[in-house]
Amino acid sequence: MNEIGVNLKVNGRAISVPNGTIVAAAVALAGISAFRRSVLDQPRGPLCGMGICMECRVTINGQAHCRSCQTLCEPDMEVLTES
Amino acid sequence: MSETYDIIIVGAGIVGAACAAECAKAGLKVLVLDRGPIGGGTTGAGMGHIVVMDDSEAQFALTSYSRELWCKLADELPPNVEYDRCGTLWLAADEEEMVEVRRKQQYYEDRGVRVEVLDQDDVGTAEPSLRRGMAGGLRVPDDAVVYPPCAAFFLLERAMKCGAQVKTGVRVETLLPEGGVSVADGTKITAGRSINATGPWSPLLSGGLPVRKRKGHLVITDRYPGFVRHQIVELGYLKSAHGSSKDSVAFNIQPRKTGQMLIGSSRQFDAEETTVDQPILERMLNRAFEYLPGLPRLSATRVWTGHRAATPDKLPIIGPSPENDRIWLATGHEGLGITTSLATGSLVADLLLGRASQIPAAPYSALRFAANGNDHE
């Protein structure tokens, strides 16, 4: 893995991750397990890790319902969860 | 064993359900039969837009009366019907379509329908997700949306409270000339009259009926509350979708209470299969993307299709069949069946009981086709 880091924000908190890290990992590194809340308000988080189950959705740069397991961290990304 | 009913309604879609509710309320003994589940046909493929239309005086009369009935019913509808008076925004892309906005404004205002003309700035404020530079639009604030299958279920529950019976999974084979029906296992159920409320399939039970299947596609998105706020319909819709018998698409989007959006619309004749037609789906979505540049970045969760029951003059067929007063018709509502279901139920009950109806029933009589034949345009 590339040694150069990426700086982004998860729920407003600055976090630095290695280049090539997926957003789901960055959210987990930020200590968050409830990525979103279901329609019935249950906490949800990554399950399949391959873009199928849709449970890891977060808001990225204002865009709701992005699959965090399929998105690479980019500099200055703003990630919001529904924790 | 057979049991006698006053009325057997074939079809547990929203039109059959509305007929059942009104007939049962009027004290008639009602049986509703459907080969599938409640609201599982055309009703389940309808957007559920409660809208006043102005293609013809008869269409205006039926849709405005129906909308009034929906308004009156609103407080009694359970939450799962998702009644939401979000209003319709008829969207004008250019000055030519603004001419249509002003014509429509005049038409509605002359007939007491509340409308509001929006200019370029107003439209941008009302719907910020629309692309810049729209010429304007016409807002019809009392139009609404519902979730059609639950609305059909609600109407059938009302009918059942008044003693009606509803049986699903029963395939009716024949509408008997003496009034009842025969079902798939050969059983005859006797009744004073039957009502064919099977929409696109109604010619199967009433041969020669000028009803054709017109296929449509629907897309539903994930939850993006506030992305659109009205049911938005392009005014080109009237030209592209209603006017032609060829395949067509038009921009039509609806916000649901959940924050989801339903995206339409497509119209195809001679497309029997219910599979998704990728080329027309692509055309339909591209049309929506032209109006909503942010839409391609959102997630859709499901695409499905259904068939509308189209008539040559875009009006439904309501009342006795021309050849037999024991067999009645409540079909041919095309893309307006959710709106016009309530007025249809009301007209059917009024006609059956010989009561004065709120609006004249003659424009919807099957007799109108006797002279003109069955040609579609």
Describe this structure in words.
The complex is a heterodimer of chains A (83) and B (377). Chain A has 83 residues and is mainly beta. Chain A is 8% helix and 34% strand. Chain A has a five-stranded mixed β-sheet with strand order 2-1-7-5-6, covered by helices on one side. The longest helix of chain A is centred in the N-terminal third of the chain and has 7 residues. Chain B contains ten helices and 19 strands. The C terminus of chain B is likely disordered. The chains are: A mainly beta (83), B alpha/beta (377). Chains A and B meet through strand 6 of A and loops of B.
Q: Which properties best describe this structure?
A:
heterodimer; A: 83 residues; mainly beta; Ubiquitin-like (UB roll); five-stranded mixed β-sheet; two-stranded antiparallel sheet; 34% strand; B: 377 residues; alpha/beta; FAD/NAD(P)-binding domain; D-Amino Acid Oxidase, Chain A, domain 2; 2 domains; six-stranded mixed β-sheet; 19 strands; 30% helix; globular; disordered C terminus
Which topology of chain A does CATH recognise? Answer: Ubiquitin-like (UB roll)
> What is the overall shape of chain A?
globular
What is the N-to-C succession of helices and strands of chain A?
EEHEEEEE
Quantity of strands of chain B, as a count: 19
Total count of strands of chain A? 7
The CATH architecture of chain A can be given as: Roll
Average pLDDT metric of chain A? 94
Task: Give a topology summary.
The complex is a heterodimer of chains A (83) and B (377).
Chain A (H helix, E strand, L loop, with lengths): L4 E6 L2 E6 L4 H7 L6 E2 L5 E2 L12 E4 L2 E5 L10 E3 L3
Parallel strand pairs in A: 1-7
Antiparallel strand pairs in A: 1-2, 3-4, 5-6, 5-7
Chain B lengths: L4 E6 L3 H12 L4 E5 L14 E2 L6 H17 L14 E5 L2 H16 L5 E3 L1 H7 L9 E5 L3 E2 L2 H14 L3 E4 L3 E4 L5 E3 L4 E2 L1 E6 L5 H4 L6 E10 L9 E4 L1 H7 L5 E8 L5 E9 L8 H14 L8 E11 L6 E5 L2 E8 L5 H17 L14 H5 L5
Parallel strand pairs in B: 1-2, 1-12, 2-8, 4-14, 12-19
Antiparallel strand pairs in B: 3-7, 4-6, 5-6, 9-10, 10-11, 13-16, 13-17, 14-15, 15-16, 18-19
